[in-house]
Amino acid sequence: MVVKRLMAGQAAKPHGFMSRFVGRAMSKSNLESNKWMVSQMDLNDGDDVLEIGFGPGTAIQEILEITKNGHVAGIDISRSMVDQATSLNEKAFTEGRLDLRMGEATSMPWPSNRFEKALAVNIIYLWPILDPVLNEIKRVLKPNGTLALYLAPVEKMDALGFSELDLFTIHTQEEVERACKDAGFAKIEWTSAQIDEGTGVCVTAWK
């Protein structure tokens, strides 16, 4: 149990010398879900996009390739992930197309109505209470902006042992949809796919 908790702690917030290995593992384990979620976002060339909990920056890399005339920003609680994602996407950072910050999703440094699209993959389980985060994401989205939330297969969370730990909160699709409605999103839809050793769900909400 101690080892499992240490592993879960690194997954929740990579830090220290282990963060290099955690970042590589995340890049591999989230590859399929990141690709699928980016494909669900209906991105346009000039979109300004926000990713919450971007980890090593692999989804950001794909988003940057599509939004060549847009701007990509992200927030993550791990300094190590900010550094890794910036290094992976150094060209875009140098060009001023990328803005990555360390911080909490409940208090983001960007002005209201800033982004067309927002994305969060495998991070919702670190939000025990959804309302404050969803309210803040809605604030920074432009009118008619969209949020895409990924819910990993429950069986995968169970296999990792994360469902048993108080570091994570397993939200159901129904709970997420209800929280989006309570936050004031005007329209909510969902789709699913066989992905990551089970059925992954994308909940999309429109401001």
Summary?
The chain is α/β, with parallel strands linked by helices and 207 residues long.
The CATH architecture can be named as 3-Layer(aba) Sandwich
**Share of helix among residues?**
40-55%
Mean pLDDT reading: 85
Ends: how far apart? 41 Å
* Count of DSSP-assigned helices: 9
Which runs of at least 5 residues are low in confidence (pLDDT < 50)? 1-10
The CATH superfamily turns out to be Vaccinia Virus protein VP39
**Tally of distinct domains:** 1
At the first level of CATH, what is the class?
A: Alpha Beta
The percent range for strand residues is 25-35%
In N-to-C order, the SSE pattern is HHHEHEHHEEHEHHEE
SS content category: alpha/beta
